[in-house]
Amino acid sequence: MVSAADVPDDTDPGRLKDSVNSICGPSIAVHECRRVPDEFNARFDARSRTYVYAIFTGDVADPWLARTSWHRPGPLDVEAMNEAAGHLLGAHDFTSFGRLPAPDASAERTLYELSCTAAGRIVRVRARANAFVHQMVRSLVGTLVAVGEGKTNPGGVPAILAAKDRAAAGPVAPPHGLCLVSVEYEDGWSRPFDPFE
User: Fold this and answer.
1) What is the pLDDT of residues 52-84, one digit of tens each?
2) Whole-number Cα distances in Å, 79 to 39, 116, 147, 149
3) SS3 (DSSP) at 24
4) pTM to 2 decimals?
5) 38, exposed or middle or buried, with CB in 10 Å at 0-12, 13-18, 19+?
6) What is the C-alpha end-to-end distance of the chain, expressed in Å?
7) pLDDT, tens digit (0-9, with 9 covering 90-100), for 13-43
8) What's the half-sphere exposure (Cβ side, CA atoms, 13 Å) at 21?
9) DSSP reduced 3-state for 90
10) Distance between CA 27 and CA 72 in Å, rounded?
11) Is residue 40 within 8 Å of residue 110, measured between CB atoms?
């Protein structure tokens, strides 16, 4: 995650990083501090964001994964999920997949990557876009899981997009499986981080 803060001009970025890490403990870790222009905005200057959503498909819940994955027992058809995901790539109106901050706000976003992979009993959904509508990633995951369960046909996804109606998409996946793994900026100074690789 990237954050910006106003600090005195003579602040040493390395010492600031060490100080924040000593205060935050193991729950939060700062990998790097850098000076940026005064007009820099960590949210609005981002070129893209990447999220990974973890689904645990084991029959019995795993206590070690309970806080960071959605326990959804039973196999998922990852190939069908990827077929459905392919229909969502590109620039679209994602009204069916999220909530808008205001009635007149645009829901057009560009989805650069949406892919599903399985490793053992963990299925990961990776989503990268220029921006996301509120709850969009979790809504995409819920829809892809419905496809993986055989409840939704992959070929029906374009109709879900076209409906521009939240009720057309699958359920919103629970929040605890979602992880922001990287944010990209034009100047390239952000460092991709993926705890799942």
Assistant:
1) 999 999 999 999 999 999 999 999 999 999 999
2) 44, 8, 10, 11
3) helix
4) 0.84
5) exposed
6) 17
7) 888 888 888 998 777 888 788 887 777 777 7
8) 11
9) strand
10) 26
11) no
Closest to 96 in 3D by CA, of 163, 18, 179: 163
C-beta neighbour count of 156 within 10 angstroms: 14
Please answer whether residues 47 and 130 qualify as being in contact, where contact means their C-beta atoms are separated by less than 8 angstroms: yes
Residue 173, token pair as written in the block: 């996946």
* H, E, C per residue of 117-148: EEECCEEEEEEEECCCCECHHHHHHHHHHHHH
- Which of 112, 84, 113, 116 lies closest to 196, judged by CA? 116
Q: Which residue has the tokens 């990998």?
A: 31
Structure token pair of residue 15? 């010492």
Containing 21, the helix (H) or strand (E) segment is helix 13-24
Indicate if the alpha-carbon torsion angle 78, 191, 139, 159 is positive or negative: negative
The two three-digit tokens of residue 25, written as one number: 């403990």
- Count of C-beta atoms within a 10 Å radius of residue 134: 14
